[in-house]
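Possible race condition, two jobs.
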Amino acid sequence: QVQLVESGGGLVQPGGSLRLSCTASTSMFTILVASWYRQAPGKQRREWVALVNPGGSTDYADSVKGRFTISRDNTKNAVYLQMNSLTPEDTAVYYCNAGLQFSNTSYEATYDYWGQGTQVTVSL
């Protein structure tokens, strides 16, 4: 069964940087459109952060524009989120969400998947 696997979270001081990664657990599925979301402590809803299309075009939430960069490496079937100039307000669990396409000679389908989340804490 395919999974989205996230990594790269951790503890960083204000002004620091982190790079999150998101990969599919099997090469049988291809990442199509992918987004990063985050859920801050005490918040019930996940906040959309950034999106990258299969062709590489991107979009960002206003709160991270100019500080975060989403990218993809189709050869590695991976999506990344480079986070710079981090502030305590960026503290959250970050989730990868992607459309995963399975395709063979007789069947093609796309499924929506979420990763398990990775904790990002920005603090002194």
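Job #2 (started ~2 s after job #1):
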Amino acid sequence: VQLQASGGGLVQAGGSLRLSCAASGRTFSGYTMGWFRQAPGKEREFIARIVWSGGRTYYSDSVKGRFTISRDNAKNTVYLQMNSLKPEDTAVYYCAASDSPYRTNYATGYDYWGQGTQVTVSS
């Protein structure tokens, strides 16, 4: 399994970015795909997840209402649309995949990780 995250960059507060996570190596139906972020000196934080089959989603309170996770089956790609960005959203963002439905709000619940993409929000 390979995950390739992209789309990060520098944006002003209040702006938007869309992250992409291109997945390859197997069929992902039944998988849960997650987005996490890690700021300097902090632990990796769960942001959002989506079940590939059916599209059920779940968000952390810190991003609910501002971020949207989605997937494109034809492109085998998961997206994270980030709106109303704040300086505290600055972090390296990671996508991850899990073939288990358990503990998918935790980094330990995921088996495969992308390389991370930097998001910087200026005030």
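The mean pLDDT is 95.
Logs attached separately.
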